[in-house]
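#struct-help
A.M.: can someone run this one for me? Single chain, 302 residues.
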Amino acid sequence: MPPSAADTTPKPPVVAVLGTGIMGAAMARSLLRAGIEVRAWNRTAARAAPLAADGATVTATAEEAVRGTDIVLTMLKDGPSVAAALTAASAGLRPGQILLQSSTVGLDASDALVRCAADLGLVYLDAPVSGTRQPAEEGALTVFVAGPRAVRGQVGPVLDAIGRRTVWVGEEPGAASRLKLVVNTWVISLVNNIAECLGLAEGLGVDPRTFLDVMKGGPMDSAYLQGKSAALLAGDLTPSFALSNALKDSRLILDAARASGVRLDLIEASAERFARAEAAGHGDEDMIATYYAGRASRPDAD
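D.P.: on it. Structure tokens below:
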């Protein structure tokens, strides 16, 4: 008896999501909406717990999360955090599982994670994402991916669920991470430019809304300029992308630039601004809080 269509239709992969912060939790919900089974784990368990109401299986350990899954998606702060999660999960991993490594970790850590994945028998996909909280919640990220062509079909449903666009940049691990650093260079420069324009407007007694109105609809306008400015002026610093993570990414960009013989003056200055804002207590706020780094230089500042 020939197999039915239901028998030949590939089953959706089962995905373990390690790291359920702002981005990881949003990506997990996008997977669930697409009908993909998700097992979620976070080092701070309380951050993963709300995903149970959305249909995820929330586990107490990373090992439980990855056991029996097809794809392990990591969305953690940095390279050491990813490595620690994989070590914690190692007893539940099996050769041939796909590691979709979506954290922004920089080039040196990316190379180390490639070696770690090989030691564990995992198929490594270098897959950082571009986008913040809202596109992550909407399944509208851009995903940069580098890795074996042979597994594209297996990861396709996951990439389609979390992203509006997937950009395959080659098979060499690290190629996607390099592209992500270039993209983040643009974003980091842009957000600090916005912060400085708004800060100068305040210092000169110019209504920042007048500045934004002048820019609106012109060739130099952008949704990013208007959106970030509106959030700051409304006093809404709910993190779409936390300032502390922007500082971390700035340092990763500078490390990569130095290693390649490139000087990035704007990112050097941006890292200094982020560091000042973080020291002033704004690290957990949205990165537009870099605005407050400029206030320390005012003559009447405390």
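A.M.: thanks! Residues 178-297 form a domain with the N-(1-d-carboxylethyl)-l-norvaline Dehydrogenase; domain 2 fold (CATH 1.10.1040.10).
D.P.: also worth noting: The longest helix spans residues 175-204.
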